Amino acid sequence: MDFKSERAALTVISETIVKCGVSLYNAIKYIYSLSAEDFYNINIKDALKVALNNLTDADALQALGLRINNNRCGEMNSPEYNRVLSLIVFSFAVRLPALKLIKNGSDTMTEEQIHSIYQQLIEKGAGNFNDIIKESYLETKYLVKKGKPLPPYSADWYKTYIYTYVPSLSAITNKNMFLLGFVEVLFPMFYSCMEEELRNIILSFCAYRAEE
Question: Distance between CA atoms of 104 and 96, rounded to whole angstroms?
Answer without folding.
Answer: 17
